[in-house]
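Journal club side-thread
Mid-discussion, someone asked how the predicted structure for our own chain would compare to the paper's figures. Pasting it here so we can look after the session.
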Amino acid sequence: MVLAAVADPPARRGSDYAQLSRRIGAAGLLGRRPGGYAVRIALTLAAFLAGWAAVPLVGDSWWQLLVAAGLAVATTQVAFLGHDAGHRQMFRRRRPSEVAGLLAGNLAAGLSYGWWVDKHNRHHANPNHADEDPDVGAGALVWTHEQAAATRGFGRWLARRQAWLFFPMLLLEGLNLHVASVRALVGRGPDGRFATPVRHRAVEGLLLAAHAAGYLGLLFTVLSPGRALAFVAVHQGLWGLYMGCVFAPNHKGMPMPTAGDDLDFLRRQVLTSRNVRGGRFVDVALGGLNFQIEHHLFPHMPRGNLRRARPIVRAYCAERGIPYVETGLVESYRQALAHLHEVGRPLRGPRPAARD
């Protein structure tokens, strides 16, 4: 897709999103839903606490691995609440949003809320932009041919095979999130200042320490060292896999704007995002992020309103001739993996000619 082909004419710059916002506002979809979030928080917290209560009840048994798998799901659902708090979908004011985010992120999941908010806000401002979006910056995975060409050694070996290794690598994403959180809180730049802006650094550090002490303390008190380590591996591995499977369909394989693409806010968000079709189960399983287009256009919109906003946004995009991409969950993964495979293609070289 050539992004310039759907760029908004200069004479109408900025007006399309304002018109869509008025339609969404007139439908009452931007207002908070305290009742709905009260129920969601209560059910999620009950599942999370029940999972941890099961650990001492089950005792020193290999059945704990099933508990770990269930807790991976519950931990991801708690992380979704932290995501919603970071966008102020629950509360209008900053303080209660930060309290909810710190409890869900730092204390419950062991993930720095301040680091994540800074990173996620930069993603929302420039989604899928290789130079501006931290989610597609070069790392263990590469997202552009330029990033692939810059790899060396093991990184180049990995880039050649990254489509095949994508899901196995997600098993390490939980560990990566913990390490990145600690680095964000203690890491400093060359000038001696903290490299990552975090509003409540000391509080976040204390909550992360409390999470680690409670998490490891409970497991190594109830379980033998071997079973405790197996529990950690299953819980953290499946949590990372679940988190990665939620976020992979949203933008991977979609157009990646560059500095030369002149796109207004509406087109920048819609063209780089992909919705995932499905019913209420998919809504719950993906934390509402299956409505990625609507979420990017209206990040403050409560999760429960995204499904209702979808037909309005889709119809408006059709009026304006803006491609609105929506696919099934399996197809979204296929497209994401196809993109990863294509990015690594130049590193694999030409196939050897067949012998006669």
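Post-session note: DSSP finds 16 helices and two strands in the chain.
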